[in-house]
Inverse folding.
């Protein structure tokens, strides 16, 4: 009787684990889970910044939409997975988590200015972290309840690229931590 119970428990454990892995794989590969490019309006208003990092004003620009094949061709594998399918790069693996130069972090997909080095801080997490975006108009924040957690996802307003998440455990003056993926960002030095 005890042997039959152990076999049933092992079988239940294996089936439950397989079902959970299958559900995660299905969710992961079913496509983007954020506002898709197809749902983007034809134009958006963003704040532009010059090469020195100074704002030049609000502008109305066309949204950037491409086919999946075009994104795959333009982006590295990790940048494609992060920006187009809400992936996450491994901690301490990106090229900008420990970057301390002065400049602007732009969207890897469309070059929209997203964050300034002036608001970057060392969060100890292994991902580049900022206490505010360079302009709220340039990002979109949406609820993300994946993996049983309530989080706020951050994406680029112009092309819907997934960038990372924002948390409320950052430094002052905002108390926020915009935890971004290096693979979603392109750094340009201030001139």
């Amino acid at each position: 009787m005890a042997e039959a119970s152990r076999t049933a428990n092992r079988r239940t454990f294996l089936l439950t684990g397989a079902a959970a892995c299958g559900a995660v794989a299905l969710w992961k590969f079913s496509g983007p889970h954020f506002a898709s490019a197809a749902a983007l309006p034809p134009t958006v208003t963003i704040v532009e910044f010059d090469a020195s990092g100074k704002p030049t004003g609000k502008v109305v620009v066309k949204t950037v939409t491409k086919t999946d094949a075009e994104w795959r061709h333009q982006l590295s594998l990790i940048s494609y997975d992060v920006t187009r399918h809400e992936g996450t790069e491994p901690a301490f693996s990106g090229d900008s988590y420990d970057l301390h130069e002065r400049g602007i972090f732009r969207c890897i997909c469309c070059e929209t200015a997203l964050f300034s080095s002036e608001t970057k801080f060392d969060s100890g997490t292994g991902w580049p972290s900022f206490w505010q975006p360079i302009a709220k108009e340039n990002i979109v924040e949406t609820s993300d309840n994946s993996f049983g957690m309530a989080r706020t996802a951050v994406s680029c307003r112009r092309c819907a690229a997934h960038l990372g998440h924002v948390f409320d455990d950052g430094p002052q003056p905002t108390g926020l931590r915009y935890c971004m993926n290096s693979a979603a960002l392109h750094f340009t030095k201030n001139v």
Observations:
- The helical segments are 2-28, 68-74, 77-85.
